[in-house]
Amino acid sequence: MTDTSADIVRIDAAAEAVPGGTASVADYVALLKPRVMSLVVFTGAVGLAVAPGHLHPVLAVIAVLCIAIGAGASGAINMWYDRDIDAVMERTQARPIPAGRMNPDEALAFGVVLSGFSVLVMGLAVNWAAAALLAGTIGFYVFIYTMWLKRRTPQNIVIGGAAGAFPPMIGWAAVTGDVSVASIVLFAIIFMWTPPHFWALALWRCGDYARAGVPMLPVVAGDRETRRQILIYSLLLAPLGTAPALLGFAGTGYGIVSGVLGGLFVVAALRVWRGSAADHRPAKQLFGYSILYLFALYGALLVDSWVAG
Questions:
Q1: Within 13 Å of residue 220, how many CA atoms lie on the same side as its CB?
Q2: At the topology level of CATH, where does 180-309 sit?
Q3: Which tens digits make up the pLDDT trace of 12-58?
Q4: What pLDDT, on the 0 to 100 scale, is given for residue 52?
Q5: Angle at the Cα of 27 (from 122 to 120), degrees rounded to 5?
Q6: Residue 17 CB: number of other CB atoms within 10 A?
Q7: Domain span(s) for CATH 1.10.357.140 in the chain
Q8: pLDDT at 13
Q9: pTM of this structure
Q10: The domain 1-178: what is its CATH number?
């Protein structure tokens, strides 16, 4: 057994030994991955707001809360399953389970209960189409991405990114009760955005993933290939971001804003492609901008919908 493997076993055993009831409220909030949840909730809310039709404001709030709770539940189960690799990755060592503040069984129970609650409330209060999409999203993130893809293939983020792309479809279905071409486009934008976003992070956190044995693209294919893939996906994302205007369910204003945002994304990706393995600044800048890009793009879609009445 390697030293790293031994460290994982020791830290995980310590987490298992934590008695129940020692975790704080802040630890349970941390399990929900609130920073990730904020983006998920926002895109889900935009999907709901731009969908044709009307949903009572109270039901709209319930739908968004269910999306938030479902996303948080997925994060909690992810932390339970990944507690061994979280223990050796610098950016995740302070999470409640590897830090020894929470028993893994508590995290799993918390995630499972919230998952069932969010789906049930969505179905009973809103509609079962949205509930089915929410259940599928949670299941995809937990079983397909976390348990199957993440530790087995460098395409983990490409395929697994679908889980983070479903929220606007869920929001749309909460209003309409179905899935349409427009909601699929909203899904596709996030799906195409996910690889360059996470690969930019992986470029400057490559050592973390290597120590944990996670086959992220920079670990398996190297720095240069990762930079090339980031550029390819960015070139595909930029025109896709303008699709709502091209397809007629967003206006000219959105089309202009999305075009500018996409152009800036490509510029940032070009800087990463031209960069070197020793300089992580372009990757860090692209990672930061990618978050701003998605918030701004969906914000522009929301404003466009309000302007259109």
A1: 13
A2: Four Helix Bundle (Hemerythrin (Met), subunit A) (1.20.120)
A3: 444 454 545 578 999 999 999 988 888 999 999 999 999 999 999 99
A4: 93
A5: 10
A6: 9
A7: 1-178
A8: 44
A9: 0.91
A10: 1.10.357.140
